[in-house]
Design goal:
With about 450 residues, the chain is α/β, with parallel strands linked by helices. It has helices spanning about 25-35, 50-70, 125-130, 140-160, 165-180, 195-200, 205-215, 225-270, 285-290, 355-360, 370-380, 380-385, 440-450; strands at about 5, 5-15, 40-45, 80-85, 275-280, 305-310, 345-350, 395, 410-415. A nine-stranded mixed β-sheet has the order 1-2-4-3-5-6-7-9-8. Strand 5 (about 275-280), helix 9 and strand 6 form a beta-alpha-beta unit. Helix 5 packs parallel to helix 8 (about 225-270), helix 7 packs across helix 8 (about 225-270) and helix 10 packs across helix 11 (about 370-380). About 55% of the residues are buried.
Amino acid sequence: MAQIAGKPYWELIFDENGALTSGTPDAVTAHIAAAGIDNLFVFSHGWGTQQGQAEQLYQQMFPLLAAAADQRPQLGSVGFAGIIWPSIWFPDQPGAPTTVTATGTQSESAGTAGPVNTQAEMTGQQIADTLAASFDSSHQTALTEMGRLIDQGQQAAALGSATPDQQKQNVAAFHALLQQITTSQVDGQEDAGETELFHADDPVQAYQTLASTMGSATTGGDQQSLGDLFGTVWNGAKDALRVASFWEMKARAGTVGRAGLGPLLELLHTKAPAVRVNLIGHSFGARLVSFALAGISAASGSPITSLLLIQGAFSHWCFAREQDMPFGQPGALNGYADRVHGPLVSTFSEYDWAVGTWYPKASFLAGSFTQAAVTADKWGGMGSDGFQASQPQIDLHIGAAGSSYPLVNNAFHRADGNSVITDTSQSAFAGAHSDIIHPEIAWLATSAGAPDPRPGTV
């Protein structure tokens, strides 16, 4: 049996459809049941993560959880499970400064810079190569052609060697391929804003607007030449590929959680009903572990004691009731919170630019960007402000390891991480989105999983 920090450790590897590939469900759950543990902490990585990177994350995070768990005898013996799933999307531009200040110079300080979209500097071929691992093998030819169209279109825009009609035809061909590589699966309207881009009737206008929204438009404003105009449009096409990758990974996270992890945990509960499971997910991994709730047939079949979403990259409305939603229908996971027998916790931080800035912009066609505040609220993510319209709701501040939290069973907790999740130097694009390896986060996770004798709390 593998171990991390002296605790039993299992890797749960899923393919893009949620099929377990690291063993049969029967064998894996029997092995966990035989280990004799009381609490299993299950962690899912988020975006931009290959298997080696995910394993590195777990080698860093689980020892912190082990140290925190050792201070909580109520947890009994604990074990860890690290989820590996195919989640890769655009990294930052190679060689780009990790943080850029308002004056354009590199900064080592945390929280002082604004988000920067470095994608316009990448070639179409670089983008296609980067995305190759994200998409199904049947889409590789389409990705290669999309990269070629971007490079050809940008060169023609710079040289003035293509007519507007030729450029429009190439943009239309690119847009048809974009529709080909994106899934039509929708898990709740609150998480489907990106799909408006894929169905745009006028891709030239849509990509031009997207480039302006994402900060990749060329100079010139309303006085752009035809070359500048199509230079902007093709930069918008690059942004469209980022949005497509974002959408695919988000949809895939839901599939893996619902079709893979959820049924696996229900099977574990039948074999080891005394084992308590504590779910932790970061970024898209937060969506994965949340959608695992929808893969468990009933509350009575669930072993889940707690749910911790760390900078979740999915809609903050996901658990909300219909009457509280701006979409006229309940959130995709409304009604599934009863699969969690303890607290549900979501962290948020203003320094998370990936979720706070870029996430709502990815839904730009689905809302009016003349009302930016309304749009950000409607299309906001968990990592920007936590659960919305999910009752009962409790607000927390993430404190030092050892802090006491007033966590309540079956309640939603918004955990303010603005004093912990702050290091924007990690990424010029995502900011502090992945600044999560902290003892404070580990302590919060074990707090959610550890019973507290006080009435009405856990």
